[in-house]
Amino acid sequence: MTNNSTSPIEAVNAAIQSHNPFINAGIVKEQDIWKKKSLDVPSLNAHAYDAVFQAIELVRTSQSSQDKVTSIAITAQQRVGKTHLLSRIRHHLEKEGGALFVYASANNYTDLNLVKYQFQQTLADSLSKSGSQKVMQWQEVAAAMVNEVKTDNSSTPVELVKKFDQVYANRLAKNKNLINALQKEVLKTKINADPYILRAILWTLSETQAPFAIKWLSGGELAQLNADELGLPNPSKTNQDREAEALKNIQQILNLVSFYNPVVICFDEIDVKNNSTEDGFPTESVIANLVKILHDTLENFELSQGIVILTVMLPETWRDKINSMPGGTPDRISKYTQRKPLELKHVSGNSMVELVTVWLKEFYTAKNLILTNLLYPFEESKLREYGKVSKPSVREALRWCADNFKIDDEPLPSAPFERFDLAFKRESEVDIGDYLENSDLIAEALYFGFFTLQNKTLEGVMIEKVTNDVKPKAYYRKHYIDFKIIGNDEGKEVKIGVAVIQSSQVTLTAGLKWLIDYEKYDLTRGCLVCSKSKIKQIKNNSSAYKLLNELVVKRGGEHVDLIEEQIRPLIAILAIYQKRQNYQLTEEHVLDLISKNKITFDNPLLREILSNPSGNIPIPDDEDDDPEGINELTDQFSTSETDDSDDSDDDFNEL
Predict the structure, then answer these.
(1) What 3-state class would DSSP assign to 103?
(2) Where are the beta strands (DSSP E) in 8-121?
(3) Count of alpha carbons within 13 Å of 528, Cβ hemisphere only?
(4) Does the pLDDT of residue 114 top 70, yes or no?
(5) Which residue in 250, 246, 256 sits closest to 303, CA to CA?
(6) β-strand 69-75 against 342-343: which pairing, if any?
(7) Which among 2, 45, 218, 362 is placed 20 to 30 Å from 167, CA to CA?
(8) How far is it, in rounded angstroms, from Cα 477 to Cα 465?
């Protein structure tokens, strides 16, 4: 086949039958913001996208200090595409440059009494992500600082990172401390900068010291040996101490980094009800107040390139909560649009066609297929009609595509059991991506598995009911207990709360707090479903591990290892149930054939969740902080007295 020839239709149809690119495509999670690839649909909420980049240009070019900080409120109903928009902005900045990007999801703010300290952590973590120059955003800033004081300022950030440690060691051998010299020279142009924060940012150029510098910038405490090596203060502090100091640190960091690049800060999903402060203020009020504080205090700094703050919420949150807050808070949250939030729109007919084109172009390119009609097997007229009539959210549109991504020229077998067998084979072979990272999909598959076992006895438990209506929940949008199994074990009532958590340690900590609260959520047992490999990554002195120990050892709960070959069949039958009409099967057919084939009855993962808890939890893989004695070797240099009196004349051309 030549490069210009069209692929045989048989090859195209085979690809369609082997993989559905739309499965779970509409679920955009926090980690997707930072992934290397993002599918771009320019017409989707273009008005909001364009406004953000116009705001970036305003703060970058304005000579007025009052215009150097601006803000945009973005409102949208659930699943319309809020996080998708932020992902698109982030990936544009990573590809084209133009601003640094900070992403703050309210899901991660687990203690609202420490919101400033937690935002400092978010700020440090976001700036440790890759920027437009193929290094961490911290390193972009540090490289700009170095180039500013070098005679030869042509070194790229990648080059500086590559040779920084070698130059540092060479100079140290000559009794000249590179960091001391750089800090001294940069401070001449940044006289109001915090010298320690500036020093820590410079240290991010070191591949060996960057992790410790970033931890310090996030407000964390270092081992004293590492603090001595970096030349940074390291007093022991309580979280309350860190909260008291966090705003000053945030201001100093943003003032320094924004001197070299505009900064876009995104507060996403501020209406997630994680908890409230000791004074009873909910998440949206606390985050809105933080945005107001940042706006008001940062205006007093010399923000050369400016800051744009985006705050994302539901329309009713703006209407009923934020817009009525006192002290000019709404004006500070939606300054650029003059107190008028930008509302995201549903998918239109044009956007529907563009959305499908983008997804399928990616799919066919990955399969090395060439088509003249990139919409195949869809019809453009039907796509436009669906978008125009249904006005779907992004997630609804992609789910519709998933359900209708099929070819009609292969007849199905006549007997229901043959159609089911064919469906099970197909769905088991479908490539659904990195599904072990998808907690929602796994939870839905487990829920459906137990749903098929109602009124059956498994592991001594007669399953009476499975429900995802876990109360109390009226105040919460974010749920950590996915469902509850209600049953009877030899005359004793059983209520097992199941939480699937395959994401961050922050989410694991929050979820475990729910799981151990048997009284609040009416449970007799809590069950965490999580890969053993993820549990072993957490430190044994962390909050997450302590809560897991309380669940399993003290409260008689259980950790169940998520094993790929055990969950995969459950995902397959869930897909068959959801697409039963496509396979010409009724609900009764699907449930009856699952039962006759004992797919869920014999599933070891479902059985393990119901079985008596073992009382065991995985032992974490605590890493040796210094496996090769590297710190001991370098300590003689970091603690020695050095004379850098000649450094002021150094043009740093070694870098």
Answers:
(1) strand
(2) 69-75, 100-105
(3) 36
(4) yes
(5) 256
(6) parallel
(7) 218
(8) 23
